[in-house]
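User: Hi! Is it possible to get a structure for several chains at once, not just one? Here's what I have:
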Amino acid sequence: MRWDISDSEEAEPTEPAEAGREDLPSDAASLAGDLILRGEDVTKEYQTGTQTVRALKGIDFGIAPSDFVAIVGPSGSGKSTLLNLLGLLDVPTDGAVSLRGQDVSTFSDADRTRKRKRAIGFVFQSFYLIPTLTALENVEMPRMLDKTPVKTRERAKTLLQRVGLGDRLDHYPDELSGGQKQRVAIARSLINDPALLLADEPTGNLDRDTGDEILALFDELRAEEDVAIVTVTHDAYVAEEADRVVNLVDGVIEDTGETAADGGHGA
Amino acid sequence: MSWLRRVTARFPTVVLARRNLSRATARTTLAVVAIVIGVVAIGTIGAGGEAFKQDQMEAYEGFGGTATVSPVYYQNDDGDIVGGISDKDVSRMRQVTSGATVHPVIERWDTVVRTSSGETSPSAQVKGLAALGTFYEAQSGSIPDSWRQQVVVGSRFADNNDVETGDQLTVTINGSFERTFRVAAVLEPQGFADQLQADRSVFLPFDRLSQLEDSDSKYGSVIVRVDPQTGSIDEAAESLETEFNTRRRTIAVSEVQEQRERFSQTFEMINQFLIGVGSISLLVAAVTIANTMLMTAIEREREIGVMRAVGYPKRAVVSLLLAEATILGLVGAAIGVPLALGIGMGLNQFLVGDPLAFTAAGLRYVGLGALFGVLTSLFAGVYPAWKSANKRPVEALE
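Assistant: Yes, the chains can be modeled jointly so their relative placement is included. Here is the combined structure:
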């Protein structure tokens, strides 16, 4: 994985980005073909009333298969904005985000929805399970509109067994504990075999033991299915597990550090 | 995998929609009730109105190919009111309408009818019509072909005065003639559209009444009838107009068919107006459903945001919410239709005397109510669905 720092200052936001790109070694260019997601000089601005808020001020990033990246930083630093961009839920104001080499800004809304479904899985802090669906149905949900109910059900069962909920298939969310709900949510995020899993505070609502289980599950997914995981977290414990930590402050990346967990998963 | 799941898996949107509706039971029920009221209002007003119309239209039965002729009164040069139809006029009518049968009707207004218990009936109209049996049917007793000592009475007269077949009635005319008759028959109810207002009439033997008339122009009206197979009532009416009204308008000819159509049109208008009023309840239902769906959309904003995030296109979100709204309409219609039919059966029993006397038009209104109910729901769901689908998942998930 590459996570380029781009210290864009207000004065000349483009230059450091250019520098960042030049930093890419030649072998990294070929590596770029392998990247699931790549961002160059990504800027995101919001209009709040008459004010323009720059949530991201020109950052570069690249995510390769089986990466585990933790994005940390104080609230309001642009973490959620970055996660939205990574999840193709939003497009940058400036700069480019590309999914497997294709510029996201060229996609229509429908295109982005389709690509998102195929490539990206989401895990939310509050799980967001649908209360009227069973665990199994919640996992099936992203694929419910596909006309492959038999295959979908098989896959959903396998995933729930994998996250240790093989005996809770027909339970409704309100019959599950927080950890179980999060595991259902993770199973749901994997139903379409995504290359990238985006997890927003995945352990935020869980106790330490349950959080451990989730992290172990992430390790397994990376090792066995090459799933890249990007997580936004306040939890230093989660950040320690990641093989790269991105410290986002005020829309710029302050510093990154490889942690001990970077044991061969990183590029 | 069970067959049921195989079937339902083919319609995931419907499954999701149904589950979603089940989570806010009270709200769903209220929305359905609103639709039920609308469907019942339209269905019942429509079907009931048609039953009423059918009831009234029966009065025209037996009057096919018939015209009524009534005299036009006018002031002559001496200032006297003249006019009326005499025996001579009737003969002329018979001549000019060859092939038609001409039935003069005598109406007396100077009569008193007393029942055997001694009560008098002020509203009774005494009439004479020779071939009564060709126009009306008896609900009890039988209409005699030629009669001298009997009377035939209308249904309303019979009801109001507790008169049955076989009872005695005493009729006094002009203070001089008084005679007691036996009731030979009570006629079927005819409704207010009947030509002779038979329901409140007492039919005396024609010849008796005729003998009592001393004036020349003794007939209150004349019924002209043509067998539609062999002749045309239009031609007969035209001949009568030419014969009697060329110099001065002395008679008014009115074809029963035309009256029937006028009545039918008038009634149709009233019914349509009432259904319009009934439709307002569906409008209210639309507002209720739109409100329900908006609340649903707002409550489930995050959930819908998640669905969009995991790859549901806008179209799928729109379909889902429209499916929910449509299910409300379908359930409302499914409850409303049997209710409307039930109430319609009551109305049929009351008006026509047969609970199953639904007309095609009446049933059409029930169907229309159901259709409008479903369409209203669907339509009411459009804006909330559109709004929901166009919410950016980023905002929904914040």
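Residues 5-30, 260-267 of chain A have pLDDT under 50 and may be disordered. The beta strands of chain A are 37-48, 51-63, 68-72, 94-99, 102-103, 120-123, 196-200, 228-232, 244-249, 252-257.

User: Great, thank you!
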